Amino acid sequence: MVAPSPWLVVNTPVRRGVGLKLSTFYIGEFNVPVTQVDVPIRATKFLTITPSYLYNWVPASGLNKMTPQPLGATDSYEESQFRIDGTLTFPVHKFEISARNMYVRRFRPGRSDDINRYRGRIGIAHPVAVRGRIWKPFASYESFYERKGGWNRDRLWSGVTLPVTKHVMFQPSYMWETSQGSRNVNYLLFGVIVNTK
After folding, report:
1. Which one, 70, 100, 159, 165, has least CB within 10 Å?
2. Which residues does 100 contact at the CB level (< 8 Å), separation at least 6?
């Protein structure tokens, strides 16, 4: 089980219809820091287009833990990603249903055939009133496709978003991931979301 991981997300509106989200999180067992910048653009009532940038760095110890058999790696690994996605979000009774399609352009060290990636995700959330505050349990399923490896990774994610103050929320969550060539991973994430809207 991955050690609990801090996750800070800051949302800042730029102008009507366009936002800015900065996030950083840490995958404890692999010692992997990840930073991400998103610019969500509200295109219509239900559609949001989001260009984003992600950077991650994996030390040699993390590479050795990710594979079913230790690699004996001595060098670290870093990767940058430029992504763009379209997310449809719509209400069904009191549920919030979302469907996201993401294209990822990966920049990896050395020559590689798997530089492009598609990620599809379906999610559901349900706001619940608890003592005058809105809690939002959520769950999602995500699948990855690469030209070289085909459909080679799946994720299940669930958790709850809890209000702390008007602009601050706490988000404990759990993620399970299976991937070809890597061992199954269980993530425990503890997040803080700061929304300046």
Report:
1. 165
2. 85, 86, 87, 88, 119, 120, 121, 122, 123
CA 174 – CA 142 distance, rounded (Å): 14
Secondary structure string (H, E, C) spanning 131-177: CCEEEEEEEEEEEEEECCCEEEEEEEEEEEEEECCCCEEEEEEEEEE
Q: What are phi and psi of 61, to 5 degrees?
A: -65, -35
CA-CA distance, 180 to 69, in Å (whole number)? Answer: 13
For residue 77, give both structure tokens: 């690994």
The structure's pTM equals: 0.77
Distances (CA, A) of 64 to 74, 79, 188: 9, 17, 20
Per-residue pLDDT of 83-108, as tens digits, reads: 999 999 999 999 999 999 999 998 87
Tokens matching residue 80: 């940058």
At 88 the three-state DSSP class reads strand
Q: How many CA atoms lie within 13 A of 130 on its CB side?
A: 12
Residue 175 has a CB neighbour count (10 Å cut-off) of 19
Tell me the CATH number for domain 5-195. Answer: 2.40.128.140
